[in-house]
Each structure stands twice: as structure tokens, then as C-alpha cells.
Write a sequence for this structure.
């Protein structure tokens, strides 16, 4: 099985930046699509960024478009989420998840807390 571990969360002021890291182990994720999800208290989990196995197909939810950048380094078995111009409404637990093309997201990390103060 694939194990995913997120890191890089923390407390940041509005307008600041954080870079999240999703480190995979157990198997290579070079052939997996990966997404970053977030869940804030009282809200449903939402996908904020997605990247396919090659890095060619990338998508963002509208609320983070232009501020967040997802990238991957398959040689390091790692996916990143660069978050700039953070807003208080970005506060959530951020999770990375992985899947092969024909599956739902089946591997999930434990999450890392991102808190943005006003």
C-alpha cells in the first residue's frame, strides 16, 4: 500500500505563504494522480488542486486559482502545494490523496493543519 504523509502546515498571517509537502512511501506514486483536499470545521471536504501522473494535467478550485500551485517530483516520490496570498478562509486541515487513473482516491494522508490569521 501507499502511505502518504503531509507536512508544512502551520500558522501564518493573511497574505503570507506556506508550502505543503506530501511524501509517499511503500510504492512509487509516479503513475498516480494526486490531489490536495482541505476540510474546515463545519464544511465538507473539498479538492483544491489536482495533478496527474505526468504533471501535464493540473486543476484548481476557483477559490485558490492564481494563489496555489501544485507540483510533483516523481524522482522524490513527493507532491507539493505552494500556497501564496493566504486568506483566513483557507484555514483547514489539508490532506493529500492518490489514485490510479481508473480509481477513486484510495490513499490518504493524516492531514496537516493550516491556520491563517487575519
Amino acid at each position: 500500500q501507499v502511505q502518504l504523509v503531509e507536512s508544512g502546515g502551520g500558522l501564518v498571517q493573511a497574505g503570507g505563504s506556506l508550502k505543503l509537502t506530501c511524501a509517499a512511501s511503500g510504492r512509487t506514486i509516479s503513475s498516480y494522480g494526486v490531489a490536495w483536499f482541505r476540510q474546515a470545521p463545519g464544511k465538507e471536504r473539498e479538492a483544491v488542486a489536482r495533478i496527474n501522473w505526468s504533471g501535464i494535467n493540473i486543476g484548481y478550485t476557483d477559490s485558490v486559482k492564481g494563489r496555489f500551485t501544485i507540483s510533483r517530483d516523481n524522482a522524490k516520490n513527493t507532491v507539493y502545494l505552494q500556497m501564496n496570498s493566504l486568506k483566513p478562509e483557507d484555514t483547514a486541515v489539508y490532506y493529500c490523496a492518490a489514485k490510479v487513473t481508473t480509481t477513486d482516491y484510495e490513499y490518504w494522508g493524516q492531514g496537516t493543519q493550516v491556520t491563517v490569521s487575519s
Summary: The two ends are 40 Å apart (CA to CA). The mean pLDDT is 95. DSSP finds no helices and eleven strands in the chain. The longest strand covers residues 18-25.
